[in-house]
Amino acid sequence: MAPERTKSAGSPRTRTEKVHHALRSAIIDQRLAPGSRLPEDAIGESFGTSRTIAREALGRLAVEGLVDLIPNRGAFVANPSLEDGRGIFTVRRALERAMVLDLVGKIDVTIAARLRDMVAREAALAARNDAEAIRLAGEFHLTLAQLTGNPLLLRYVTETVSRCSLVLAMYGRPHSADCGAREHSAIVEALIAGDAEGAAALMDQHLAEVASRALLSSRVEKDIREVLAAYAKDIDIG
Amino acid sequence: MAPERTKSAGSPRTRTEKVHHALRSAIIDQRLAPGSRLPEDAIGESFGTSRTIAREALGRLAVEGLVDLIPNRGAFVANPSLEDGRGIFTVRRALERAMVLDLVGKIDVTIAARLRDMVAREAALAARNDAEAIRLAGEFHLTLAQLTGNPLLLRYVTETVSRCSLVLAMYGRPHSADCGAREHSAIVEALIAGDAEGAAALMDQHLAEVASRALLSSRVEKDIREVLAAYAKDIDIG
DNA sequence: AATCGCAATATTGCATGCAAAGAAAAAGCA
DNA sequence: TGCTTTTTCTTTGCATGCAATATTGCGATT
């Protein structure tokens, strides 16, 4: 009656899952710009499947909030506003605070060494600011989430980290290192020391800084109407 | 190029969405027990649609974590373990804490009245403990999430509330009112008074109590194998 | 008599096809 | 020329059908 214990098989087995994951990666990696149309036909053709598969994948991405689905009109890559961006960071801060609090006390010597090693590797790449460095910085947060052993927390942190990258890509300053290795190091040390409140505060401050770096100014206007409104109000149509 | 600003149309328009929402309600209302099989045929027939629709709805519910999808085997109502349950509550507490903190200061007289009215209606149904009362209690949390104006927070709170219902269905005591109207009232009053830390503490305590009520004892074994293992060890097969 | 293997059955995975809703383009009117 | 209306065309929404995979029941074998 009950299914076997297998939770979420490692590699995607059905075509729908494959396309689902591929599309998600494409969106997160900014290969598909926010607002882009996602026609079922084109997707199916790209992956060598029928529209049915593309359609199912789009529906699932819509549940994840990465795609906007408009009935009878089609699917579009989500296009978070600046305000949405702030909201995403709010959620992320709450989640990672809980994550850090949960982690205190679960850190043994093995894990401690692993974390220190990871931070050291980050520091080594700190000078560069390419995709690799950015990916590594994000992975720090994902690793911590994984260490909690809480599947839902891991999923949500993964999602929020992804979406924060998206937001940073849209509104962040081009050449800012989004995560400082030094800040990560401080968090790790607080965790190892068992200082719950300290670690939580450091993480909170860390994310607050990342957010403020990005979200202070709206570098890109999100909607055409927002852009044009500024011009329209100076024009007398009559 | 970009789609119009319309986010998530109010009422579901496509059949897929309708079935999706209906199935979710059925699961949350505990009309479909955790672990139950969800055959595409039966669902399609129930709603008067084809399997295609049922299939899409199941895929979306799987993303939400309410359904387990096993390739070539079928769909099952999610069957969270006790540990999963704890993890879900951990996440929910973190989210709702952030929610309450965000809400303080956003409460004007109109909203205050609306919240008080909602709590009053809850109190009126407090005696009963049927599906309607349960639904209303959950809606309190969803309403608060909606008031933040944070779409991601709303989505995550919605998901965690849903999954907590599932967990309570599995492990909670049968006749416990899961959310006390009095506790909700206290939270609302703290919010209206602008007492951020107080409101956060009340919410945290509220959810901690709900969790502890449910998760102290494992009333139901999750997996058939877990159940049978206890019997098997007393039996000599030979 | 219990176990193994095989066939029959049920259910999922996926593609195709048709109808309808929207968008774009062309024609008609002021 | 500019605006409305109608027509065409693209794209989505959904059902059906076929192939593939897992499960169940039955019979053969040891």
Q: Quaternary state, please?
A: homodimer
- What's the level 1 CATH class of the largest domain in chain A? Mainly Alpha
Greatest contact between two chains: A-B, 53 and 54 residues
Strand content of chain A: under 5%
CATH topology group of the largest domain in chain A:
Four Helix Bundle (Hemerythrin (Met), subunit A)
- Low-pLDDT sequence parts of chain A: 1-9, 218-238
Percent in helix of chain A: 55-70%
**Count of discrete domains of chain A:** 2
Helix count from the secondary structure assignment of chain A: 10
List the helices and strands and how they pair.
The structure is a homodimer of 238-residue chains.
Chain A: H1 15-28, H2 40-47, H3 51-64, E1 67-70, E2 74-77, H4 82-103, H5 109-124, H6 131-147, H7 151-171, H8 181-193, H9 196-215, H10 224-232
Antiparallel strand pairs in A: 1-2
Helix pairs in contact in A: 1-3, 2-3, 4-6, 4-7, 4-9, 5-6, 5-8, 6-7, 8-9
Chain A binds a DNA duplex (30 and 30 nucleotides) through helix 3.
